[in-house]
Amino acid sequence: MYVPSHFKEDDVGKLQQHIRDYGFGLLVVADDDGIEANHVPFYLSTEQEGTLGQLQCHLARNNPLWRRLHDGARVLAIFQGPDAYVSPSWYATKAETGRVVPTWNYLAVHVEGSARIIEDSDWLKLHLQRLTDKHESGMASPWAVDDAPADFVEGLAQAIVGVEIRIETLMGKLKASQNQPERNRVGVKAGLEAGEGAQGRAMAKFID
What we know:
The structure is a single chain. This protein is α+β, with helices and mostly antiparallel strands. The protein contains 6 helices and 8 strands; from the N terminus they run E-H-E-E-E-E-E-H-E-H-H-E-H-H. The protein has helices at residues 12-21, 93-96, 121-136, 150-157, 182-194, 198-204; strands at residues 8-9, 24-31, 34-41, 43-45, 54-60, 73-86, 103-118, 160-175. Strands 1, 2, 3, 4, 5, 6, 7 and 8 form an 8-stranded antiparallel beta sheet that branches. A hairpin with an 8-residue loop joins strand 4 (43-45) and strand 5. The longest helix is centred in the middle third of the chain and has 16 residues, at 121-136.
């Protein structure tokens, strides 16, 4: 990912939080058999001190991708936050010079690491509980894995395999009009906030 210095986000805590906030990511594998990308929900574990964390996800056992993830296989996980089109009409400098063009603001985090396949039933159940609890936490009546019959859950768990990725590098890019003068940033923020799209309003929150 091309990351100019003014768009670079290298605060580990912020990058980890972005992954938690936008956890539906893209798992990319490139090897001698080609390139494949799968869209999966991730759970970020930061329990092990002295590490950048571990990404955990699962794949259907019928998905042939997991057989390519031999222990230590290098993978890329991509997370994308809000993004929005930026109109030149929002720039104060449009009236001054006319030297403006459209662009796109966005948030992206790339994670590289080594993967291992996990078929242990206890690990899989804990993973499913953590992933479910994270996304149910804001519900009025949160659903829990234990709400379903145990034999039903066990049968579904046998149909998946776990993937744990030891994070080795974190790269973040936040393109939020940082390269524009303050008066232009003010215009972009106002333009996004006034729009009807949820993505634009979410992106506006990142503009200082």
